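Section 5.1 Outputs to date
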Amino acid sequence: MIVLVEQYAKLFPDEANRIYAIFIETTWGATVSQQLASALARAAEYGRRGDINSFRCERPFPLLDATISEVAAGQRTLGGNLGPEIWIVNSEFKIASPIWAADRRLPFTINLNTATEAELMTIRGIDLVAARNAIAARGAHGFFRNIDDFKPLFSLQILQQLNSMSYEIKRLATYHRD
């Protein structure tokens, strides 16, 4: 999607600011800036609670506008806050080719830098607390560079399991979902 937005901006430079704004607003700035993503998430939480004073104090919109301007000026990239893909395969957890099929025979693949709580909890030994801790650490400290970055979060047994799953995905043949 980032490539599409960047190419569109090149083809239609007079629309570049608007397409950047649409993309950044839609993704809550998460692909561009951790600071912006966190500020927008906090503001949204205040809004959900009806805490207008905290919402006003958060003031994420000047940061949003500045980030859009920085992308348009080439000072930031749309993917500047994306971490490396750390793919693993969970062969114990099966999924169906198309979502509506009953036959679950494909192994579940997970990118640890984009995984949700539910995805992490498919891994044996990772419960809700551990999954939330991993996601909180990713949000607070940035993306994981490799599986070793999980050492403070998971037991040695889970780390060995993740390393095994990482090795297994490299041996996995390409499969296509219908």
